[in-house]
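Lab meeting, item 3. Inverse folding demo.
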């Protein structure tokens, strides 16, 4: 898919493309265990969540991100 096609992809197109695409998109959030000694666990998890949302937002117009968020 070209950049122009990705930019013009609408939310309604996401479901139609699902049957064509066999790849499964997964997002892993990796947290550093050594930070738990220095920070409260909730703060470490919160930072991981912020990083996760930032990655999704940064690629919000990508067709894979649209499928991940809307299916």
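The presenter then showed the designed sequence:
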């Amino acid at each position: 898919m070209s950049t122009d096609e990705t930019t013009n992809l609408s939310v309604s197109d996401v479901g139609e493309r699902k049957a064509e695409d066999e790849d499964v998109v997964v997002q892993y959030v990796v947290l550093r265990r050594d930070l738990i000694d220095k920070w409260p666990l909730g703060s470490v998890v919160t930072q991981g969540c912020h990083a996760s949302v930032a990655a999704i937002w940064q690629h919000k117009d990508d067709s894979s991100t649209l499928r991940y968020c809307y299916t």
